[in-house]
Amino acid sequence: MSPVNPQQQNKCATQRKFSQAAVNYHEHACVQSQSAKILLADIPDNNLGLCLDLGAGPGVNTKVLSQKYEQVISLDLSISMLEEINTLSTKPAYKICADMDYLPFKAKSFDSVFSNFATQWSQNLPLLLKNINRVLKPGAKFYLTIVCDGTLKEIAHAWQEVDQQKHINDFVKPTDLLKYIKQANFKLQSYRLNCHKDNYKDPLSAIKSIKEIGASNMVQAKVNKGLMGKNRLKTLLNAYPKSNNGFDVSYQVAYLTLEK
């Protein structure tokens, strides 16, 4: 039997968790909804041609994209997410279940690519950016939000009081992101960094919120009394920082418009 590829194992875990969250995703993806509204506002109306919605999830942005483009193709790793898509549009919905790290498209296929809160799941972000550039036509735009370093800092802080192990995924540093964009031969048209926060009434709800959107492998440990013990759980919850709004979960989000 051949050894298990760690990257493939992580990809399968990501696929499984998002599939489990598909039905209730709309109810809990608050920050994702906020960032999508901001990013969609950057896209002018009445665009001609074909747009790729990369990491489309349950199609929460497909309706708006379908109003801005002649045709939209929704791509996601989770078939369960894609099955939730309902564009509420007269245009047919084209859906592809595929891995963003292996884009199944010919060069110069798309007039635009849109991706909200998805590319942080890539196992090789520099290569992904180069592949997105490859499938875009000359002069085409890539509208992107991506989670960056500093995300889930409250959860990371709480875990530090439990042990010195690393429990939060590494997210790309903004300086590295800009370097990768340059290496992929994109022109940087716009860039800004925003910190979005979801607020919860108690620390356990804050930590478990990650699971509700399918992103629980952002946190590399299960929060469960039986698995981590009552004392460790109590230490974790007591260490969670409290703000004036309750218990925050922070997402550091980069907004970019790139041109091939």
Give a written overview of the molecule.
The chain has helices at 6-20, 25-28, 30-41, 62-68, 79-83, 125-135, 153-160, 174-183, 203-212, 225-228, 230-239, and strands at 50-54, 71-76, 94-97, 110-116, 136-147, 187-200, 247-259. With 260 residues, the protein is of the alpha/beta class. The chain has a seven-stranded mixed beta sheet, with helices on both faces. The longest helix has 15 residues, at 6-20. The protein is elongated. The protein starts with 5 loop residues before the first helix and ends with a strand. Mean pLDDT is 84; it is low at 1-28 and 213-217.
What's the layout of helices and strands?
Blueprint: H1 6-20, H2 25-28, H3 30-41, E1 50-54, H4 62-68, E2 71-76, H5 79-83, E3 94-97, E4 110-116, H6 125-135, E5 136-147, H7 153-160, H8 174-183, E6 187-200, H9 203-212, H10 225-228, H11 230-239, E7 247-259
Parallel strand pairs: 1-2, 1-4, 2-3, 4-5
Antiparallel strand pairs: 5-7, 6-7
Helix pairs in contact: 6-8, 7-11
Give a nutshell description of this structure.
This protein is an alpha/beta fold and 260 residues long. 37% of the residues lie in helices and 23% in strands.
Order of helices and strands: HHHEHEHEEHEHHEHHHE
Query: Structural class of the secondary elements?
Result: alpha/beta
Overall 3D geometry?
Answer: elongated
Low-confidence stretches: 1-28, 213-217
Q: Describe the sheet with the most strands.
A: 7 strands, mixed
How many strand units?
7
Strand percentage, roughly?
Answer: 15-25%
Please give a handful of descriptors for the protein shown:
260 residues, 11 helices, alpha/beta, 7-stranded mixed beta sheet, disordered N terminus, 23% strand
